[in-house]
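Alpha-actinin-4 isoform X1, Austrofundulus limnaeus. Tokens?
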Amino acid sequence: MLLLEVISGERLPKPERGKMRVHKINNVNKALDFIASKGVKLVSIGAEEIVDGNAKMTLGMIWTIILRFAIQDISVEETSAKEGLLLWCQRKTAPYKNVNVQNFHISWKDGLAFNALIHRHRPDLIDYDSLRKDDPITNLNNAFEVAEKHLDIPKMLDAEDIVGTLRPDEKAIMTYVSCFYHAFSGAQKAETAANRICKVLAVNQENEQMMEDYEKLASDLLEWIRRTIPWLENRTQEKTVNDMQAKQEDFRDYRRVHKPPKVQEKCQLEISFNTLQTKLRLSNRPAFMPSEGRMVSDINTAWHNLEGAEKGYEEWILSEIRRLERLEHLAEKFHQKAAIHESWTDGKEAMLTQKDYETSTLSEVKALLRKHEAFESDLAAHQDRVEQIAAIAQELNELDYYDAASVNARCSKICDQWDNLGALTHSRKDSLERTEKQLESIDELYLEYAKRAAPFNNWMEGAMEDLQDMFIVHNIDEIQGLITAHEQFKETLPEANKEREAIQSIQAEVQKIAQSNGIKLSGGNPYTSITPQSIDNKWEKAMAMVPQRDKALQEELNKQNSNDTLRATFATQANAVGAYIQAKMEEIGRISIEMNGTLEDQLTHLREYQQNIMSYMPEINKLEADHQHIQEALIFDNKYTSYTMEHLRVGWEQLLTTIARTINEVENQILTRDAKGISQEQLYEYRASFNHFDKNHSGALNNEEFKACLISLGYDVENDKQKRSGQMVSDDFRALLISTGNSLGDSEFNRIMGLVDPNSTGSVTFQAFIDFMSRETTDTDTADQVIASFKILAGDKNYITADELRRELPPDQAEYCIARMAPYSGPDAVPGALDYMSFSTALYGESDL
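Tokens:
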């Protein structure tokens, strides 16, 4: 009876104290009745045989007791007690060499199996590698002694008996092995609990690492954008075109070298964020909220500002180049006209201040007066040039020319000199007119010559000035206009030549009259300093400038034709690239909607599609090269295409980002499917329903489309406890539509929308739809399960200590828990007690760490 109380853990009826046979029989019967009450059938075993010392009966009864209370409760994967115990031994000793447990007799003769069981659970007690298969006695005694000393398992077997027997007693070994099973069963529960906690903590540590990586990458990208935008917003003006072109080259270097890696980082950041959120949802963790200012939307806003700054900077550079080019042209034109004017005015002040008329004859005075009239005509003709010089100087000031001070000084000097010339001219004319009455003789031929020679001379000077005039054009139409004007000028040359011959004929007539009348001419024409030789020289010089002007205009026409060829080349490539990008964007839209084959097939197809798109990169590079030639040629318009390089760059970046996002969506669907056990057929069903209600193929459902999609899948939100079955009979579906007015219940639908659209954007993406359906159809780990696991490790206490965590968990995860668990403050708290319950709920977002 004492044996039964010890092995069963229960109290038996009080035994009779007498020593007579009848007392012994009664006590044995009480024991047998207890055994029978436990469902054990005793066949041919009576109290008299036991009392009389029947060894066979006594041993049979003892084995029955052992089998019932020590072995029968053993169960592994719903097997019988013996099979379960054997399966447990096989699993525990599987990793050990020279151990192959197939039964409970000869498999244990060499003693290695006993040592392997102990070493598996308590490696600190056995040095398994020092044991030899050819020394069974030593192996057995080592196992028996260690079990008795450290595991409180009595030495039930004799090593020499086991080794000396061909087939050791199976029941004896089973009985002894069952003691090991019961000794280690508690450790097995702790190991299972520790494994669960390790799994949960490993997921949490991985998620935290991904969060840290996201925060760092987001901070680096935002810092780069913060540093880059001020550079792009710098509008410090340069003095020359070359300096601005150097800035333009720096901007090209930024576009080609510095920005592309940041585009990749931005795309990778979005992919990492989506993958992290998917993993958090799959592990039943709260969604990740980045630090303030580091949301994906914040990064997109910063990126948008960066691209706006880029566009503004590029437009400013081109505008500044045009402005400086215009300034340099105007400055050169100003100095050319100023030099011509200063050359013309050289000596005029001295001529107007001389008093030669005081000693001249009447004819000479009249000649001086006529000469002065011719000078006034010449002076008036030069008024336009002075006004042009002043107008150019004013325009240079308005355009903020860097050397405006010297231009203003020179212009002011010319204007002051011009005013002085006007005053001197008026003064000299008054003086000549006062003496005009004393002078009678006028040579009409000289006068006619002077009057015709002066305008013609001015015309030639103006023509030569126009033939040397600098020009700048930006297209074929402008150069054609200059060529047309030049051709019109050449058509006037025959009439001008007739005028030149007529002027020369006047001088010839003077010579003829002088010769015929014997008159000896003294000096030149008194009315003008323009000689026939100077007219002929200027005429020859002007005629020599005509072909030079023809050549310059033709060279500019060739240049503009070349520029037009560059425009056409760029337009052809840009139109092809633009059409390619648009076609690929439409194809990606169709692919993301159709999604044929398994998810792995879709992923493979999308990656091949991505590689196909990346193979088009040489065409983009070629277009960049064409665009660089366009900019180097200072071409600012293109009538052959509506595309700009900026539009195509944005389109190409959007194409790469869209295919990357589509691949990431399929990868997240694979993660969801594998983690939640969703079948391929279910995913097809979800995709088909989603695509059916996505009428505009936008990749997202609005509220009404999402509600209709839920109804089509049989989701009844009127009953909060009912989950989606996947199908509804027609009567149920009709009843659902009638009871809800052909719509889902407002409160339940608002709850669902809070899960799939937490930001209240009014649309539901396919990934959010899949996450919701996976949560509704599968089970996940919960905080209660983790709390139960910690409770096992804590020995059913409401708290756990640091030593217990270090004993049961790997070092890094034990320290992770100790650093984050709050002190336990319950009534049963002890020094160093930690609150594992609040820690577990915090893992799932139900409280704060």
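The CA atoms of residues 250 and 805 lie 59 Å apart.
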